[in-house]
Amino acid sequence: MVATPLLHTTFRYATGKDTVMMVVGGLCAFIHGVALPLMLVVFSQMTNIFVEYQIEIDTLRDPSKECSNNTIYWKNGSIYEPAQNSTVYCGVDIESKMTIFAYYYAGIGVVVLFTSYFQIFFWVSSATRQIHRMRKDYFRKVMRMEIGWFDCNSVGELNTRMTDGINKINNAIADQVSTFIERISAFVGGFMVGFIGGWKLTMVVIAVSPLIGVAAGLMAMAVSRLTGRELSSYAKAGAVADEVLTSIRTVAAFGGEKKETERYDKNLEEAQTWGVKKGAVVGIFQGFMWSIIFFCYALAFWYGSQLVIDTKELTPGTLIQVFFGVLAAAMNLGQASPCLEAFASGRASAKNIFDTIDRKPEMDCFSEEGHKLDKVKGDIEFHNVTFSYPSRPEVEILNDLSMQVKAGETTAFVGPSGSGKSTTIQLFQRFYDPKRGMVTLDGHDIRTLNTQWLRSLIGIVEQEPALFATTIAENIKFGRPGVTMEDIIQATKEANAYNFIMALPQKFDTMVGEGGGQMSGGQKQRIAIARALIRNPRILLLDMATSALDNESEAVVQEALDKVRMGRTTISIAHRLSTIKNADIIIGFEHGQAVERGTHTELIERQGVYFTLVTLQSQGTPNKSKDAISEAHEDAIHLKSLSRTSSQRGSVRLRSESKLSIHALSESLNIPSDYEFISEKESEDVADEHVEPAPVARILKYNKPEWPYMLMGSIGAAINGFVTPVYAILFSQILGTFSMADLNQQREQINGICVLFCIVAVASFFSQFLQGYSFAKSGELLTRRLRKVGFQAMLSQEIGFFDDPSNSPGALTTRLASDASMVQGATGSQIGMIVSSLTCIGASFIIAFIYSWKLTLVIMCFLPLLGLSGAFQAKMLTGFANEDRESMEEAGQVSSEALSNIRTIAGLNKETFFVESYEQKLELPFISAIKKANIHGLCFGFSQCVLFMAYAASFRYGGYLVSSEGLLYTYVFRVILAVVMSGTAMGKASSFTPDYSKAKIAAAQFFKLLDRIPKISTSHAVGEKWDNFKGEIQFLNCNFTYPTRPDVQVLNGLVVSVKPGQTLAFVGSSGCGKSTSVQLLERFYDPDQGRVLIDGRPSQNVNVPFLRSQIGIVSQEPVLFGCSIAENIQYGNNTCSVSMEEIVEASKKAYLHDFVMTLPQKYETQVGTQGSQLSRGQKQRIAIARAIVRNPKILLLDEATSALDTESEQIVQSALDEARKGRTCIVIAHRLSTIQSADIIAVMSNGAVIEQGTHDTLMAKKGAYFNLVTTGAPIS
């Protein structure tokens, strides 16, 4: 294994059949490789025949000579001996000889056709089969890993490995190997032909050829290194773009557009410098290579002609055979090096993947080992357990924890967040094993029990339940295989989900969307409870199972849970203490230890952890209904669809920002369900089809400032185009010199031609460099300009634009990355390719028609085929992988869903289900890949043999013209070389056309974005501003629907006003339009009817940046940017630079300062992407500090404390009360205790205010608000 890492590991999935296929394919590749050197042998003999014939013709022009018995005699009968004292042979039947050569060529062509077909077919299909096995194995292995392993390997990385990583291996073991064998055999064959023909000349050429090899190698290295640098600096810019677009609402609310564009552009600048460097390096090396090749020609022809003329060691034919043999060998060696690169990257990927496949999981969920107890009572004990997560081994979560949970009892865990409550549950599910100590079930250490069996006893309902993207019924079935519909209905009834499911148009067949995104929090929760119940578990784990619900649903779900708890061991974790008062035992946690246990009354008397939490929570609540807004309404307005994607989308408000899916629409409109699946991909395709390709003129207009570069580049390209035809002339001229009678004249001509070769060498060095550098520079500048302009255009769109699924952050960042670089494809180096191909083709045809128009016409018949074959080879380099990629997408969706929800799957024992589903999705791509191997092979074979056929026909006809029309043989060579070479050039140029048309379409999409006029202009020039902004707000009869859901009326005649300095609180069930009104105020949207007045002016006429600069916002899930705490707070004011004093001042007001000072890096601490390094409460306080730094006249608080536990909530609440002083404030809250001090409380329902007043007046009124506070009844 160690000795041959490449073969042994990379091909470890090959069966006997695969091995046979690879061996046969390798043989074919070898034979294919030898074909080129063989052709050279034929070519050399043919050249000799032509030279002899020419000499005979020239000699017989003298009337005093005649030909008899194949020898030339003087008329007087003596044998004719020219200066070299040798007889001159004659009577060459050039036509019959040419016919024989034509047969040779055609024969070689047929062999090539077959061998190249088999070489590709066998290798590609055997690779496909091996990769198929590898994918299955890898996924199965990943699904077996313990949860701790997933903590250390990001899901994104695993997904990339499953796609890109395995594709790289595929690349390394498929046609690349056969191509490598073919090129190496051509390399060996070329040298052999050279040494057989003439060893001296071969040695001379060999001496020079390493230079070419070295140059090619260096170039490849330099290019890959520079590309890597360019990509990584672009990746930084892409990360900026992604972060900004994901948090677009926050960026807009704080007016950070300009700042973000600059941050993006700064990273682009770096990418641009590397790109230009890459262009320069490629130009220099290309120039160097070409000049070496031409110097090499000069040297070889000069020395070779010495050997032909002076020492007679070579014939003209063998000179050509040697020279081209060695040259072909060198070229093939050079072309073999990209294959080595593919092997290297394949081996690197293989190492990663095989390491995973060979790793032994610490807890194997597929294994049959471990006991299964016959009878389970359900006693759970923790004995001195110490534990820290594998991803953060230095932080101890549980610290010598000991406790017991008795069978059949309900035990509640309480304690501040971070005290290890949820961790104990994960240890019991055996997601992790404790570092020290042990967990026992009925006295057995759970490490000795069978994992699958253990998990089958447990039903778990989590705080944020993960649902899978399938129907409700299927989701519930995940709980237990083979359940009947009756069981499902029973479970949903118990979980209080039956009624809302039956209210949906498709009932149990309703799709829940990716991650359950089409369901509201409460609905997801109840489906998850039904899924847990259907398992009929012995042990029930409830991790904040009711946290996402409003009072009424909570009461019902709580009742359902109370019912099902009977006779089961239940562990319940909750932040809302009201839900666990009636537990049998309550255990208080602190710092990873169980510090107290007892019943509710016992613990209240003890006045410990539990007592503190209870007193904190009951402050300010006149009765138990703490968080009292009902979402009973939500089943009707079931369109909350807070999908996981949107929840990261910008936080100013998520609830109303629906990621519109057709499902949601079809439910509200009762569209028949065949509309069900217009997936995002298709909708994007639909968008693509209508794009008219952009006119090139407009693309070039963006490139206008670089016209000097483009002119220089085109001049260089034109010179490069002339090189090929010039080469054809010089080469045929050399062949022509050998038939001259006068030796001195021969020498002079050859020296002259060699000097010309040197001149061409120098010229092509400069022109190649000029072309490479100029176009790289102009292309990179264009790409950067387009990206920047595009990003600016995106940021200036109104928020409604981002609600459209086809403008999701992912889609937009991809558009920035790929469209801009594709557009470069239409300008940059493309123009160079096109110019040089055109000059090459033009010059070649002019030459060809001047020397022999008949022969030119014959060869032209082959041109389309040659062009096709050139295009094919170019396609081979790029094409065949991309097509597979698309068909792999379905399997990719399965794998990414499985990996993202790995905990849920492990808890449900559903690993095998996903493995099988993944394997099933792999079948189709596998079958189509095998089919493609066939087509791929045929095309390759055809493109390889065309050249031989073209030679066969054109030389045969050339022979006829030489004999019957006296055409000079040099002209035959000249015409054939010129046309055939221009044909391949044409093929190369045509292979660029797909890129070119892609570039035009990409450009069109880009321009469509640039030309889009935002419905709400964020320009600083539009709209009015005024000096003494007071902050008086009035909503007058506002009606509003979201642009993506025009059929759902969100605001319905909203009337409410607030005076400067007052606090207005909105209460109401979710979906009644509370947050929407906030978004209208921020001018993320404008009302459809009615007006929003700010200081008496209609909001539509107010300057948007000015308005937003007066507003500070703190939302439910604040979005932080991946920079330091200080920078995040500074983001509050993007108009000027915020000093450190102001930052500290603001964070003291937000009760954040003390916490920051405990961190090692204080204000320079990085918060991680989206603030992931911080707890919810800490993020929330940073967001408050950010709003305070802004010093706004209007403060918007959108459920700013709902996500916090009691302790943090108290702190944040006091911070908010501090911030509200002297400002107009709008508060949205689910917890009524937080808004009793408001000046106006407006109760909303169905998009309108149904009653308003202070807390006391509303309580006295005994209306909707009174009911809410006292009973938590829903607002009708």
Attribute tags:
Rossmann fold, 4 domains, single chain, ABC transporter transmembrane region fold, 1276 residues
What layout of secondary structure does this protein have?
Elements: H1 5-10, H2 16-60, E1 65-68, E2 71-74, H3 94-144, H4 147-152, H5 155-173, H6 175-197, H7 199-246, H8 248-253, H9 257-309, H10 316-358, E3 380-387, E4 398-405, E5 410-414, H11 421-428, E6 436-441, E7 444-445, H12 451-456, E8 458-461, H13 472-477, H14 485-494, H15 498-503, H16 521-533, E9 539-543, H17 551-565, E10 569-573, E11 585-590, E12 593-598, H18 600-606, H19 609-618, H20 644-647, H21 662-669, H22 680-689, H23 696-702, H24 707-737, H25 743-795, H26 799-803, H27 809-826, H28 828-851, H29 853-887, H30 889-900, H31 902-907, H32 911-965, H33 969-991, H34 993-1011, E13 1033-1040, E14 1051-1058, E15 1063-1067, H35 1074-1081, E16 1089-1094, E17 1097-1098, H36 1104-1109, E18 1111-1114, H37 1125-1130, H38 1140-1149, H39 1153-1157, H40 1176-1189, E19 1194-1198, H41 1206-1220, E20 1224-1228, E21 1240-1245, E22 1248-1253, H42 1255-1261, H43 1264-1271
Parallel strand pairs: 5-10, 5-11, 8-9, 9-10, 15-20, 15-21, 18-19, 19-20
Antiparallel strand pairs: 1-2, 3-4, 3-6, 6-7, 11-12, 13-14, 13-16, 16-17, 21-22
